[in-house]
Every structure is written in C-alpha cells, then in structure tokens.
Amino acid sequence: MDALIQHIRQFTTLSPEALAAVRDAFAEQVLPKGTLLVSEGKTCRHLHFLQQGAVRGYYTLEGKEITHWFAFENDFVTSFHSFITQRPSVEYVQLLEASVLWTITRERLHELMDRFHELERTVRIAYGHYYIRLEERFVNAQFRTAAERYADLLHQAPHILERVPLGAIASYLGISQETLSRVRARL
C-alpha cells in the first residue's frame, strides 16, 4: 500500500481523510504469472496499481497475439477503453510475472473522486500518461524503423529484455522474432 500512496503523492497532496479512504478502498491481490486481469468481450470493472510485477495488454487477430503495451512497477493498469466506457473489452490484460497489485472497483473509484478532488486529479494524470503512451506508440509504428523502435524501447525501458519474452517484444514492435534478432545483433 505504501507504494500506491507514494505514487499518488507524486501528483497531489492527500488529506488525512483521503489517505484513509484510499487505504480502505484498495484491496491487495497477489496473483501468479499468466493471470488474465481482463479478457476480450468482458467489461472491465477494476483499476489496478502494479506494486510488483509486469503486465501486457494484447489483442488477438486470426489466432495471433498482438501485444500493444507493457506495464511495470508503479503503473496503473486496466483496459482503459472498457473501464471508462463500460463497453466490452477488445483486449486482454495479462500478468507476465507473479505480481502484487492494489485493486479498486470502478464504482468505488468514482465515489472517491466525487469526495476527494485530489484523487480526481491523480486519475486524470494517469489517463493522460496512458494517452501519451498510445500516441508515442502510434508515432513509433508510423514513422520509425524497426531498429529505431527497438532502440527507443531499450532507452525507455532497458529492463524489458530481462522481463518480457522476445515474442511479445517483437509483436509490440510490429516485427517478426527473426527481424528482432537481426536488429538486436546489429545494435
């Protein structure tokens, strides 16, 4: 819980009442590698704070998994589109490692945001970070070579090679594993 509180305090000052409400509203989950937090076709009703572990978001297309984001410690994770719109998810959210998460329901989160505007600010910032990651992903996919995308990934998250299977990294970069191997050999 301390990691969650520290993360929120990066964005806002919490009143004692808000701090107590956060502590009461989030529930700890310790889950094994491979657990699906969200499945395609299911409406997402939870937001998770990742205290420890690694997560990926992926779609399936013609039986293939296409990874489109990763998250690590101190990230909020969910299927944001489904969570916000309350429509069925088009993605899966899966733990890549055994993980410790702090989880809150959508309804409880909205109650907290209505009561404590400093928490509304934190959620707004979390949504903004997610949007920025999506825009960066779009720019990378449209305007950068495979080698540039890989170099950017290593610069932004150098630990990724130790924690994420190469197949998921290749999928994230929009290249085959063979191309990823060639790019890695050149760099």
From TrEMBL:
InterPro entries: cNMP-bd_dom, cNMP-bd_dom_sf, Env_Response_Regulators, RmlC-like_jellyroll. Gene3D superfamilies: Jelly Rolls. It comes from the Bacteria. Residues 10-121 form the Cyclic nucleotide-binding domain. This is Crp/Fnr family transcriptional regulator. It comes from Flaviaesturariibacter amylovorans. The lineage of its organism: Bacteria, Pseudomonadati, Bacteroidota, Chitinophagia, Chitinophagales.
